[in-house]
Structure formats: C-alpha cells, structure tokens
Structure prediction request, 1380 residues.
Amino acid sequence: MKEVAQFTINYSQTLNSTGQLNITLDALKSQGVSFEDLREFYYHMLLARTFDTKAIALQRTGRIGTYASCLGQEAISTAIGQTMQPSDVFIPGYRDAATFLCRGAKMHELLLYWGGDERGMNFEHNNQDMPYNVPIASQCCHSVGIAYAFKLRKQARVAVVVCGDGGTSEGDFYESLNAAGVWQLPIVFVVINNQWAISVPRSKQSACETLAQKAIAGGFSGEQVDGNDIVGCHLQLSKAIANARTGNGPQLIEAISYRLTDHTTADDASRYRDDQELADAWLKDPLKRLHTLLINEKISSELELQDMQTQCNAQVEQSVAQYLATPAQPVSAIFEYMYQEMPSALQQQLDELEQSLNSEV
Amino acid sequence: MKEVAQFTINYSQTLNSTGQLNITLDALKSQGVSFEDLREFYYHMLLARTFDTKAIALQRTGRIGTYASCLGQEAISTAIGQTMQPSDVFIPGYRDAATFLCRGAKMHELLLYWGGDERGMNFEHNNQDMPYNVPIASQCCHSVGIAYAFKLRKQARVAVVVCGDGGTSEGDFYESLNAAGVWQLPIVFVVINNQWAISVPRSKQSACETLAQKAIAGGFSGEQVDGNDIVGCHLQLSKAIANARTGNGPQLIEAISYRLTDHTTADDASRYRDDQELADAWLKDPLKRLHTLLINEKISSELELQDMQTQCNAQVEQSVAQYLATPAQPVSAIFEYMYQEMPSALQQQLDELEQSLNSEV
Amino acid sequence: MSSPVAELTMIEAVNTALQHEMSVDENILVLGEDVGANGGVFRATDNLQQRFGELRVIDTPLAESLISGMAIGLAVQGFKPVAEIQFMGFIYTAFDQFICHASRMRNRTRGRLSCPMVLRAPFGGGIHAPEHHSESTEAIFAHVPGIRVVIPSSPARAYGLLLAAMRNPDPVVFLEPKRIYRAQSELVIDDGQALPLDVCFTLRQGSDLTLISWGAMLQETLQAAQSLAQQGIDAEVIDLATIKPIDKLTILESVEKTGRCVIVCEAAKTGAVAAEISAIIAEEGLTSLLAPIIRVSGHDTVMPLFKLEQYYMPSVAQIITAAKKVMEF
Amino acid sequence: MSSPVAELTMIEAVNTALQHEMSVDENILVLGEDVGANGGVFRATDNLQQRFGELRVIDTPLAESLISGMAIGLAVQGFKPVAEIQFMGFIYTAFDQFICHASRMRNRTRGRLSCPMVLRAPFGGGIHAPEHHSESTEAIFAHVPGIRVVIPSSPARAYGLLLAAMRNPDPVVFLEPKRIYRAQSELVIDDGQALPLDVCFTLRQGSDLTLISWGAMLQETLQAAQSLAQQGIDAEVIDLATIKPIDKLTILESVEKTGRCVIVCEAAKTGAVAAEISAIIAEEGLTSLLAPIIRVSGHDTVMPLFKLEQYYMPSVAQIITAAKKVMEF
Ligand SMILES: Cc1ncc(C[n+]2csc(CCOP(=O)(O)OP(=O)(O)O)c2C)c(N)n1
Ligand SMILES: Cc1ncc(C[n+]2csc(CCOP(=O)(O)OP(=O)(O)O)c2C)c(N)n1
Ligand SMILES: [Mg+2]
Ligand SMILES: [Mg+2]
Prediction:
C-alpha cells in the first residue's frame, strides 16, 4: 500500500460575522483593498439588496414575473462583479443580479428580463457576459468554450462561472471541471453554497464534507471561503482570477452563504425550512458586518451610509420607472431572432399570426 | 486559513509483474485465498483469453460483428467475477466477457450478442445481471437504482459497476458517484483504467493524478490497485464488497491496466499508439505473472496448466459450435419484445412486413 | 366500503392517484427533485413523504439523468418508480437514459429484464413562467419506440390514466398540462379504476368536422366547438390522451364521418404530434377527406418570455378560423 | 488557379470540406472524441490535426454534453466550432445543450450573442454495427426551433452542404449517412462553392409520382425509381437534404404535378420527418392528391441487432410496392 496522492481543502474568512477583520487594515491595504474599495463594496451590496427588495415588491404587484432573490448572497456576488476585469466574461445562473449590476448591466434591463421581455438580456453596455441561465449547471460547459477561446487567442482574460450547491450534482458541472483541468483553462468556478436547492438541504445534495473538494475530480484545487465576507471573497477571488489569467489553470471556490428568503417568489420555504435556522443565518448577514466595520473603523459615517441608501433608492426608482415606461415588443419579435435571416416558412407563420390578430381587431 | 478536509489516495499491488508476491502464501491463505483459488483465477483468466482470441478470429471471418476485446484486462475482470456473490448484481460496460463468464453467462450467449442476436443477453442462468451497456458510463446510474433497491429491501447484496478511464469523463459517472454517496449505497465502482479511450490517452482524458480521486467528489473513498494483479484485485475488491455489504457505503477502485489490442475489431490502434508502449505493457501481462507464481510456488505443474489450456480450448470450441448451430430468430422477434403486449399499430406494421416478405418469395 | 368521492383539481387528482397506488402497491416509489417535504413545486406529491416515508418518497440530488437512470435500476429490480422531472424544460438530460435504456431493456434482454417506470413532468405554457418552464416537446418522446406517452386533460382522466401508467409493464412518459392543474375541479371517485391507455376520448360528438387535441389545449378546443355550434357547425372533439401509441381507429372513424379535421396543439408546428395525426389520415383515411387538414399550433419559435406568450399559444379564435376554413372548403 | 478536382467518397468529401474551410477561415475549430490523431472513427477528420494543430483540432474528454456546451461557448466568442458526436446514438446527452442554448442564444439576447456552430454526426443503419450505432432520430432535431438540420446524400452534396453549414450564422445539425460514406465516388470540385441550405434537390424528374427521401435511403429510392421506369411508371425523386427548415415549395410543386407521393425514410415511423412532409401536403397541397401519401419507413421498434437488421431497413421492393399502390389507387 503506498500513498499516491494527497489533497487538502482550506477554509478562509477575513471579515467575521461580527464585523471584525482578522488582519489589520494596513495589511488589507497592502493587498490592494483601499477604504474606497470597502465603501464601494458596501454600496454595491446595498444597491443589490435595494434592487432585490424592489423586485420582490414588483412581483407581488404583478409588474414582473417570478423572481429569484439574491438576499443574503450579496457579498460573494458583489465580490465577483468587483474583482473581475471588464474584459473578462461572467457566466451566471439566475440569482446573480448583484454581479450583473457591478458588471454594468442596467437595472431596467434586469427588470425587463424578469418582466418577461427578452430585451433585458441585450445589454446596452454590450459586453460579452452571458445571459441569465436557467437550466442548472449547463452554463459550466459554456465557460469551458469561452475560456478555450481566450486560450486559443492568447488573451489574458478569465471566465468566471457560478452555480449553486444543487448545481454541483449535475453532470454538466463535473464534465466542465474535468475539461477545464485537461486544458488548464482560465476559469474560476464559484459554487455559491446557500445551503438549499429549493427544498433540498445541502446535506442531502452530497455526502461530500465540502463542495470545494469537487475540484479534485477535475484535477485542480478547490477552497472554501466565507461567502458572506466580501473582503475574504474578494481576496480569494483576486488570487484565483490572477492565477487563471497568468496561465495557472482553473480553480474552484465554494462560497458558504445562505439563502435568506424563499427560493423564488413562487416558493414557500416555510414548508420545508426551520425558522430557527433562518434566524441564525441572519446573524451572518453580509451587509451588517461590513456596515459594522465601516462605522467601527470610521471608514464611513452613519450619515454617509444613509446617504448611500438614499442614492440606491433613487437609482432603483428611476430604473423601475424606465422599465415600466418601456413599450412592449411587437409580436414579430417572437420570430425575428430565431435565425439571422428569417426562413420563408417562418415568415409565413408570422404573416398568418399577424393576419389573425388583425382580423380579431 | 484553516484546513477543513484532507484526502489521500493509496495504491496497492500484491503480485508484481515478475510474478512475485509481496506477502507470504500463508498470509494470503489467512486472507482467504487458497491454492485452489489461485488455480481457479488462472483458469478463468485463461478461459477469457482463449474466448477472446477466438472471438477476434470469428470476427475476422465474418461469423460475429464488431468485438471489444478484453485482452490485458483479464485480472481485474476475473477478480470481479470471482469475488462477487451470485446474488450480487454486475453492471457491465461492453468489454467484460471475462466477468460475465465467471458470473455464469454462457459463452455461446456472449457470441450470440456479438453476432447480432439479442437472445445473447437473455441469460440462461437468469440472474439479475445487467446486459452489456454501450453508451459510456450510463450504466452507473442504473447501479444507483439497483443498489437503492437492495437497501430498501434490506438485502445484503452489492452492485458492482464498471466503466473505463474514458467513462470517468461522462456526467452520468459523477452524478452516480454523488448519489451513491448521499444514500451510502452498496455499490463498488470499478474504473478499469486501460490507459486509452479509443485513441485518447489517459493523460488527455483528465488532469487528475489518479482516477481513484474522482470518488472524493462523491464523498467517499477511492483507491488504486494494480489491475493486472489478480491477487491484489481480489483482496481489495473483497474488502470493498464486504464494506458495501455491511452498510458502509460505496467505494471506488481504479484498476490500472492496459488495453493490449485495438479498441475493437473496427479500430486500428497503430494510427495513434506507440509500438514501444504496447511492448512495455506486455511485460505486465496478468496471465504470465500468475503463471510464474503457480509454477514457482509449485501450486500447479506445467502439465496441469497445459491441461487447463486444453480444457479452455475445448470449452470454447464447443460453444462456438453451439453458437453457429443456433437457428436465426424469426422476423417477428423485432417486434415482440418492444412491449409486454404488442400494441395494435405495431402488430399492423409486423403484418405488413411479413406480407411484404412473403410476396417477395 | 364506498370509495371516497371528491371535487378535485387535476393536481389533486394526480396526488390522489399516487396516494392510492402507493397504498395498494408497496413497489411504487416516488423520486425526483423536491418531491419530499416540499411535495413537489406544484404539490403533486404533497403529503406522500409524510405518509410513506423517506425511503419510498425520495428527494434526489439535482441531476435529471441520474433520476431517469436510477429509475431504470429500480425498475429492473422489480420496483415501479414514478420519477418526477420538475419541468419538461429539464427533461432533455433525462432523455438519453430513457431512449437508450428504459425503452430498450425488455427488447435488449428478450424479456429477461423490463422497465415498468413512469416519468412524470408538468409541461406546456400559459402560466407566465420563466424561460424553459413552458415546453411542449411531447413529439420527441412520441418518436421513441418501446414507450407510451400519456397526457391527461381533466382531473378524472389524470386520475385514471396515471393509475394505468403506474400499472403498465412498460415505461410511460406522463405529461401533465400544468396550465390546467388548478383550472377546474370535478368529481373524482378514488376507486382505483384505471382508464385504458390505448384509446382516445371523444369529448363531444359532432358530424361536421373533427377537432383533435390533447392536454390544456382542449380547453380552447372545446370553447371553439361550443362557439362553432352556435354558428351551426357541429364539431366532434377528440382528446388524443395517449400520444403513443396513437389510437388510429377512433381518429379515422371520426374523420370518415366528418370528412374534415383540424388538429390543435401547443408545440412548435414542425414535427409536432399534429403532423403524425395528419400523416395517419393522409395515409389511411385520405378518401374520407373533404378538406385539407389544418394544424393550429405553436410557431416554429422558442416560447417567448411571458410578455408575448399569449401570441405563441393557439387561441380560440384561431381554431374557429381554421374550422371555418375547412368547412368552407 | 484551377480548383482541385477529384473522385471522392462521401467521407472524403466531408474531410475535404473541413480542410477547405479550416484553411480559409481560421475561426473554424473541430472538436470531438477521437477527431485528432485518429482522424475520427470514420476518418472524417483525417489529417486535420496534423495540418491545423492540436489547438484547432481538439480531442475532447469523453463527454457529449460538454462537447455540445463547449461549442456554444466557443461560438458566442466568435469561433465556428464543428463538433463531432461519434455516432448519433450518443447525441442525446448533447441534445440538452443544443435545444436549451444553441438554438436560443440569438433569441434570448435579442441578437447580442449567437451560436454559429455545426454539430456533425454519422447516422443511420445498415452497416452491421453494434447497438446504438444505427440511429436515425433526425426528427427530434427537426422539431427544435432556431436550428437547421441538413443531411447530404452524395459526396458532392456533402461537400457543398457542409461548407454552407459552416458558413451559416445559426446552429446546424449535420447528419451524415454513414452507410454511404464509402458506397460510391464522384467528381467533387474543391472550389469552396457552398450549396443552398433551403432547397430540396430534385434528383430525377418524373410525372407520375413523387418519391421523397434523404440520406442513404435515396439509394433504394433511386433504384426503385429506375425499376418503376422499366415498368412504365415515371417517378420524380426529391432529395429533401435540408430537413429543417423544409423547402415546402419544391415538394408542393412536385406533388401538384404528379398527384401522388411516397415518402421513404429509415427512422421509426411514428413522428418521423416523413410525417411532417405528409402533413404539409395534407395541409397545403391536398387538392393535388390523387392517392394517399404512403410512408415507407422503419418500424416503431428499436433497430434490431444486426442479424435481423435488413428486416428493419426499408427495401427497394417495399418502395416499389408502395409506389404501385398509389399508382393503382
Ligand atoms: C436542469 C434543471 N433542473 C431543475 C431545475 C429547477 N430548479 C430551479 S432552481 C433549482 C434549485 C437550484 O439549487 P442551487 O443549485 O443550490 O441554486 P440556488 O437556487 O440555491 O441558487 C431547481 C431544482 C432547473 N432550473 N434546471
Ligand atoms: C456515450 C458514448 N459516447 C461515445 C461512445 C463511443 N465509444 C465507444 S468506446 C469509447 C471509448 C471508451 O473508453 P473507456 O471508457 O476508457 O473504455 P475502454 O473502451 O477503454 O474499455 C467511445 C468513445 C459510446 N459508446 N458512448
Ligand atoms: Mg442553493
Ligand atoms: Mg479505456
């Protein structure tokens, strides 16, 4: 019997749930995180939460459809958005409004999407980020192709792809890890472990001690990070992204977080989830801990933070107005984007539809 | 940064490629392996090789179709067959004639299958072993269901499922590992790593140091064994199967072997594989090393071993004769097993076919 | 002992059928994502885990190919798994196991092993759901030899057909039109009576033309028939119900009587089940036809996000227009 | 500079088209299992890796969903991946990515991203292959909105259609009838001339009836036409070629001329592409019809293992019988 391979999985946290850093602010600065960065982190998390709250309200009043909230996951999602370079490519799931907003997507675009209008994924800032992706984990395969493209073109770009704890059970997730390993692709896989896949708790999703260890099956390293600690998330993401960018291959980060609300507006978590568990999870709220840090370390004043909230509110309200004022797409939009050029049989169907709608009038 | 999980992968070998045991024969006996067992191992490996040689000859002369040889893999495949209990269920791929024969399948049945006749998978000994499985790794999911059935019925039975090195890249493989871990199912996953998936070498299939470590993604342990060492294979399989049987959950064994011939009779490995590599691999031939042991330790005489070969030849020849004498299935057999009861629309199609065949006569 | 009778919605009827069969046949297992404590995202499996335990009502990891393939393993071992795919839009990764193995196990082993399993999934549009939650791709399954495809269109038929599916010795895909999960209630007698899996249901007798549909679109089809009746056109309405194998006889007899046929289906037009029905008539009932066979169906487009969804779904008006067109031919 | 002209088999024509396009368009990539050193199990990609390098001709791990999904990632980044699935029997795990993403990326992003990719696979029976190596499930793809499905039936058409597929801005499934990979050679001019992706090819003009087929079955169909000609029946033979979208016009015009139609296809009968063609005629060309539309097709069974394979495949005799039946109607 001889040992032929050995692996370890590490966990890291920098800003704990009571708002204390386990390194000095100077050390943080030397790692490239300024006070301004911390304030920006907070602003983006606050914006995400404000947007999220509004989106749920809009759903309740029938202005948008089913919405998947990112409540509780603002730290990791914002860290991704703030750590990536603009020319990198983000490959989301569906719970990633926070990241999208950091990346430059417009709020009214996201509302259009959740409001049932495809134009929401035609980003105005027009980068190459992928659209929301609903079939769980299928986006992981896209990240392989995107990163392969970077490699082939010798571009120093990175693909960052996210999925949930549930997503780690899907074949596409593993096939992608394995392929990323084979070609040593510049991909950072971020598993946002919010402890639940709808009603299925993390413990029933996998017998693995950590989800980070799934990376071992791809032949590269994985680590856990406190996903509610935006400082730690940023630091670990920075390293992983830099490694990927400089040709050191893929990495997996399991961000440990918690879904602080229903799965989506169509779900009722009280059917399957303990109130106490939820209450405990709120103690680890990512916003509160950064708020505490900013105040305690006098990086921001209460007034400044209130001001931020006001700004966020204004930004959200303006976007909602813009969304609500957007005129509907014509019926022809159903047909126009199926092919670059519409085949005649499809044109015939469109003609028939328009005719039938006209005759109804 | 704190370490939250640690894993190791071990490799073991008991009978090395020159035919030397690294434990004493007494120690072996105390682990339940008698001289008679060793002779039986040899007989079954020899039978498999004799069958295999014949099958290739039959393909070359058009008596059967494409055939996937098990040349070089006789040790692990025989060990599986000889270590499982009759009431366990074997879930094969397509390169598993050696195991099937140990399990009680008839040679002429296997020839029927490769000869293009479904009756070959209607085993006479009628156990619950699964039929040959062509879509790579899909059989892994079946093993989950089968083992779940054992668990639900509180039966002390084990599912043993095999796939190749290539198979470890498929989503179904991982989904099955993960599920087996979740329910702590009595499954032994055997990855027969013969270094090639058709033309794709192991090094391009995965960046993993070992394939055994894929088990870590399922939350259970994996190990490597010299797959050409039937003694070691048997010992490690015995432990894994016993563990599974006694409720200790799944395990993965990577059996390191080598495909000593073309992928199938339809393949030409010289297009992509080095002659030297093949020559080197022959030095690790599983039969030769056991032959050496049996002779050196006077467990069998040369004469006895020659006798075995004669017996194998006779058994194969008789089976071939039986295969060749099997009358063809009627055309109606195409239709009869699609449903338990043939739907009328299908009966209509059968009637039309028979009518059209009759009118041609 | 009298059987319970209740006003049930379709989703309740599905649940009732599952409860019935689980209580009389201990080999029935239910598995899928969120089928346990949550009772399924539509509550089809509500209360099952409480009643029958975690071993028989199984929350699986999030992996559709696993669900489908695991069900095969259970079925060859003599269980009767009822596997749920949460939405038909996520059924495609389960398709490989189904077409490669479930549909072939009996044939491959010459009857030694078989695969009595049910793959349930809610399907269809019209509920303003997100992308991938409105698929109607039953045609893909209808092309697979060795299986049955069943679609109920009312609570009572959901109850009877699901019982039949669970008792069937071969694999069945059971697609539930989620738009009408709660659209209406009707009296369902929970007496364990299964419905046949090889006949259409004629929901309305008529002599002028034959309207064929299945699932949720029967709502619009029946409305159209009613409206046509007011205009003096007497439509026969057939609920296909068993999408595979198709009950050709009922269809051909109806068209022989009426001479005219309109097929209503929600799926993208090209290659939908409507095409097969039309082809059957063109092959075996052509001489009955007095007019072209019109297909009122979804477009050859993706189901749009919900703001434009209504323009994808076939409407009562479109069915009426088609019916009049064949009548005036 | 004159273009190379050579007698090529279909598999050589495929290889020639790939070489041509890779040499003129550096965005073309080839990926799949064994496409590199081995040149593909049928040699479609022979020599490509030697010529264009390991980065552009990619041996992937053994994972079909990955192949399909990775191609999507490459395509949205501006490459034009040509992904090979080794046999159509293993395409189902690649289907999910194709129907969920490849076919929808343009629509989902309102044109911001698109998916110009080709998914190649050998398909069809008749070569005495093992189980799962003889599939003809093109109907499943033909039902998917937003894609093209193309099937060549000769070396020259394979060359021209594959070029067109690689230049097409939307996803294309390119299915190669492996039974005729090496059945015959014909002169192919390697001049980079693509064929159109939206018309059928009329291979034989005729006035008495229309025979429609595609892929390998055109061999039997043409033989039947020849035999029918000797018996005084003048059949028009149409190669469908582009399975989706279907060129309805050519079909309808032919049937208008002949009044009779037989469709020959290898796939299992129910829900095959033949049904769609028949439905189109029944919907838009009914009045042309003088006889029922007969489908000569595979049975609704699994393709049997090869000892009985010949009884699954439609035969020349069956086509002739069907043709006579519609002529005598
Ligand atoms: C392939 C697929 N199967 C099922 C679903 C339905 N579904 C939507 S979200 C979800 C749970 C996802 O859990 P997780 O991956 O942990 O992500 P989270 O929602 O917690 O962010 C399920 C089952 C889906 N969208 N895609
Ligand atoms: C899903 C699937 N994809 C592709 C194939 C074609 N194929 C047959 S064997 C093989 C290689 C398998 O390699 P490995 O898993 O290492 O097993 P081995 O043949 O070496 O025993 C491939 C690609 C297949 N049978 N199934
Ligand atoms: Mg989750
Ligand atoms: Mg191998």
